[in-house]
Amino acid sequence: MAAPLVLVVLVAVTVRAALYRSSLAAFIAERVEVASPLNAWKRVVEGLALLDLGVSPYSGAIFHETPLIIYLFHFLIEYAELVFMITDVLTAVALYLAIQDYNKVVFKKQKLLIELDKYAPDVAELIRTPMEMHYIPLKVALFYLLNPYTVMSCVAKSTCAINNTVIAFFILATIKGSAFLSAVFLALATYQSLYPITLFAPALLYLLQRQFIPIKPKSKSFWLYTMQYAALYLCSLVVIICLSFFLLNSWDFIPSVYGFILSVPDLTPNIGLFWYFFAEMFEHFSLFFVCVFQINVFFYTIPLAVKLKEHPVFFMFVQLAIISIFKSYPTVGDVALYMAFLPVWSHLYRFLRNIFILSCVLIVCSLLFPVLWHLWIYAGSANSNFYYAITLTFNIGQVSRARQTRLHFEDCTGSGVLPATVNSAGCVWPIQSSIAASCLSCSS
Amino acid sequence: MAAALPAVALLLGCCGAPLASGVQDQAEQFFRSGHTNNWAVLVCTSRFWFNYRHVANTLSVYRSVKRLGIPDSHIVLMLADDMACNPRNPKPATVFSHKNMELNVYGDDVEVDYRSYEVTVENFLRVLTGRIPPSTPRSKRLLSDDRSNILIYMTGHGGNGFLKFQDSEEITNVELADAFEQMWQKRRYNELLFIIDTCQGASMYERFYSPNIMALASSQVGEDSLSHQPDLGIGVHLMDRYTFYVLEFLEEIHPASQTNMNDLFQVCPKSLCVSTPGHRTDLFQRDPQNVLITDFFGSVRKVEITTETISLDRDLTVFENELPKDELATEPLKYADQLPVAQIIHQKPKQKDWHPPGGFILGLWALIIMVFFKTYGIKHMKHIF
C-alpha cells in the first residue's frame, strides 16, 4: 500500500506547488472562507514582525496564534510553503495509518462476531470483506490530500492545516491504543484551538473498548482508567500552557487566543454562524448569545456519547463534524478534515437517501461563496444576507449529511434497545429479523 | 520681531543719548508682547432658530474685534446658521444682541467665511492646523505665523469634554488640544486666547498642553451656562450671560486701552452669571497682568512716527534680554528642541531580532524527548545511536 500512497502524496504536492507558483495563491489567501482571524497567514507574519520590533505580538488584537506556533514559524518562516505541504502530507499519512489500524480492529470484531454466530442470515451481503476494505485507507488519504478545500487551505497557508495535523496524530495515537500519546496530542489540539476538548469523550470510549473495560458507572476499573486518562490529558495541557508562558514571559496569550475564540469579538464574515448574529445584536444580549452559541458546540458530546458509546470512532467523526460546523471561526480546512473520513463508512452510502442532493448542496454552496462575496463587497448589489444564506445552506448541508450518516449508521447497527451485539463499525443486524426487515427497507 | 526692529532702530537713532531712557522705555514696550499680527477665529456651532443666542454671541464678539482693529481678512467667522435670513426672524436681516432691539450686530459689513453646513469639526480643525485643500480661498484660511496672536472664540452647546457641532458631531477636548499642539509645532501662533461659552466649558480647556495658551470659559465642569435675556418680540433668547458681560466689558476698550487680562477674568462673577467662569493661565508664559486686552481682541500696532534720524545702537540686544522679572522663569522655547529632528532623521530603530528564550527551547525539547522515550521505551535508544 505504500506505493500508491506515495503516488498520491506526490500528486498532491505537485498540485500545491503548482498553485503556489501561480497567481491564484494571493487570491486564495485572502478569501474569508479559507483564512479566518484565527488562522490567517497574514496575521502570523504580522505577529512575528511585531515580535521583531520588540512588541508583544498579542497587543493589538491581530495575532491569535499560540506561542508554539510563534516558535515554529520563527525558524521556519522562510520555508512556510514547504511546512504547509509537509503538514498536509503528515496529516494524510497519519490518517492512512489510523484507518489501516482501525480496519484491522473492525475485521477482528467482525470475525469474532461471525464465529459467535451473532449475525442474522440475511445480512451476508453486508458483511465487509477485506477486499473492499483494502483501499479505504488510501481513499481516506486521497480524500484528504486532493480535497479542493485542503488544497485551498494549504495554498492560503492557513494554520488550520497544523490544527488538522495535530488532530490526525491524536486520532492515530488513539486508534493505536496509546493513552499517553493520545492524551498528549489531545492536549496539543485543545491548546491550539480549544474545541477538540470534546474529542476527549470518544477517545476515552475507544481506549476503554480496547482495554475491554466495560463502560458502566459502577465499574471501578472504568473510573480508574478515566481518571488516569483525564489526569494525563490535564497534566499535559497544563505543562504546555506553562511552557508557552516562558516563550514571551507573559500570560497575554490566554486572553488573545482562548478569550478570542470564546468571546468572538471579530465579526468578519466566514462560513460559520456567529458573525451575522453578533453583527446585529444589541450589546447587552451579546454575552448571553455568545454563551448559547458556544454551548452549542460542547452540548452534543454527552448525548452522542450515550448513544454512540459502542462506536467511538464514528462518534469522533460526528464530533469533528460538529466542531467544524459550530465553531466560532470555521474555515474549509476544518470541513476537509472530517470529509476525509467519509470513505470509512462508504458501506453506508447505499442507505443514505439524499446523498445526491446533499453533495449538490455542498458543491453549489462552495461555488456560490465567492460569487456572493463579490456581489456583496465589490459589486454592492447584494448584502450580507445573501452571503449568510449561503453559509446557512452550507452548514445545513453539512448537518444533514452528518445526521443522515448517523441515522443510517444507527438504524443499521440497531439502537441498542435489543440485546444484540454490534460490530464497532460494520453494518450488522440484530438477531430479530423483523428489525432486519425494517432495516432492509431503509434502503428505499 | 523683524517688523518691530526697524521701527525701534529708527526710534533709537533719532532720539539719541538724552532721550535714551525714554527710548528704552518705549523700546521695552515693543518687546512686551512678541506678536506682530492678530487673528480671530470665531465659531458658532449651533443650528436652528432657538439657538439664536449663539449666533448673536459670535457676531457680537466679531463686531468688537473688528472695532478694535482686526480686519475681515484676519477674521475667520464660522456661523452654523443664518439667523438674519431665517424665515422665523420677525426682523429680517438683523441679529440683535440686546433686548428691545437696541443693538444690531449683523449690520452691513458682516463677512461670514464658513456658513451653514460648512461649519464642521473637520473644517474647523483644518482651519486651525492649516491643512486645507489648495482650492480654499484666502478668506477661509487662517494664515497665521509664529508672530500671530490668535483669539479663538467658540460658542454653542457643549458637555463635559466635548462641544457639539450642528447637532450631528462633536469635537472633544483632546482633539482640540491636539490641534493646538499641531499649531504650536507648525509655529502657527505666538500666543493664543481661547474663549468658550458653552455648558461645562471649562472641560474644553483642561486638556491643553501646548505653551502660550490662555483659556477662559463661561462655566465649570458640571455647571450650565445660562442665557441672558429673551426678547419677547423676536421670541428667543438673544445672548448668553457670559458673553453679554464680556461684551459690556469690551465696549469700554478702545485701541489704546491698557486694560489687562486680570480684568477680563473678573468679568461676570457668579452673582451675575449664575455659573462660575473659569480661566487657565498655567501654559501662558507672561503674567496675565502684563497682557493687554488689545493684544488679542484688537490689532494694535505699536508705531511711533518721528521725523528725526536715529543711529542704530549696538547695545540693542540688551533690550531683548531684559524681560520683566516677574514673568514665568521659563527658557524661551525653540522649535528645534521640541522635535528631536536629528535623532529622527539619522537614527533608525535598531532591528533587534527576537529569539525565543533558551529556557523555552530547552523545556520544549526536553518534553518532546521525554514523550518520545516514554512511548517507545529506552531500549530503542540503541537503535538510534
UniProtKB/TrEMBL annotation, chain A:
Name of protein: Phosphatidylinositol glycan anchor biosynthesis class U
Primary location recorded for the protein, binned into one broad class: endoplasmic reticulum
UniProt topology in membrane: Multi-pass membrane protein
Organism: Cairina moschata (Muscovy duck)
UniProt entry keywords in alphabetical sequence: Endoplasmic reticulum, GPI-anchor biosynthesis, Membrane, Signal, Transmembrane, Transmembrane helix
Pathway: Glycolipid biosynthesis; glycosylphosphatidylinositol-anchor biosynthesis
Signal peptide: 1-17
UniProt family annotation: Belongs to the PIGU family.
GO cellular component terms given for this protein: GPI-anchor transamidase complex
PANTHER family named among the record's database cross-references: GPI TRANSAMIDASE COMPONENT PIG-U, PHOSPHATIDYLINOSITOL GLYCAN ANCHOR BIOSYNTHESIS CLASS U PROTEIN
Pfam families the record matches: PIG-U
Domain of life: Eukaryota
Places the protein is found: Endoplasmic reticulum membrane
Transmembrane segments: 68-99, 166-187, 193-209, 230-251, 257-278, 285-306, 351-369
Record GO biological process: attachment of GPI anchor to protein; GPI anchor biosynthetic process
From TrEMBL, chain B:
Pathway: Glycolipid biosynthesis; glycosylphosphatidylinositol-anchor biosynthesis
Protein origin, superkingdom: Eukaryota
Xref: Gene3D superfamilies: 3.40.50.1460
Any one biological process term the GO annotation gives: attachment of GPI anchor to protein
InterPro entries noted in UniProt: GPI_transamidase, Peptidase_C13
GO molecular function: GPI-anchor transamidase activity
Claim: Calcium is one of the keywords in the record: no
Subunit structure: Heteropentamer. Part of the GPI-anchor transamidase complex, consisting of PIGK, PIGT, PIGS, PIGU and GAA1. Interacts with GPAA1. Interacts with PIGT; this interaction, via a disulfide link, stabilizes the expression of GAA1 and PIGK and links them to PIGS.
Protein name (Swiss-Prot/TrEMBL): GPI-anchor transamidase
